[in-house]
Amino acid sequence: MKAKFLTAFCVLPLLSNAGVITCGDAMSVGSEARASLHAAAQSRAQSAAQEFMEKTIVHPFGDRDSMIGGTPEKMAGTIEVYWCQSAEQPLHSAYYNFYMSNKGVFE
């Protein structure tokens, strides 16, 4: 419970003051805060990708043919290792790039 309070009231406002959650932000916090940052970035990227493609993402944690997906935790690791090109890259853009490069995530 303390970690959720810390994330909601201390970490996230600091990051939002910087304007954007970066890959470096997500990799520099504890596991609960990391999960929260990834969830927010994934949701933002999913909405933007769906709007652009005019299709629904039905496999948000990896496409149906890959070994990537299944859980938010596996997806977070995949995004950090393979899709974050720098610590300064916005985290949501790494998710967005994943979605737009893996059309199997859509319906």
Give a structural overview:
- By secondary structure, the protein is mainly alpha-helical.
- The chain contains five helices and no strands.
- Helix 3 packs across helix 5.
Write the layout of secondary structure elements.
Layout: H1 2-17, H2 23-27, H3 31-53, H4 72-83, H5 91-101
Helix pairs in contact: 1-3, 3-5
Radius of gyration: 14 Å
What is the residue-averaged pLDDT?
Answer: 83
What structural class do you assign from the helix and strand content?
A: mainly alpha
Low-pLDDT stretches: 1-11, 13-17
Shape: globular
Gap between N and C termini: 37 Å
Record field, number of beta strands: 0
Strand content: under 5%
H/E order of the elements?
HHHHH
Major sheet size, sense and barrel closure: none
Total DSSP helices: 5
Helix percentage range: 55-70%
Which terms would index this structure?
107 residues, mainly alpha, 63% helix, globular, disordered N terminus
Summarize the structure.
With 107 residues, this protein is mainly α. It has five helices and no strands.
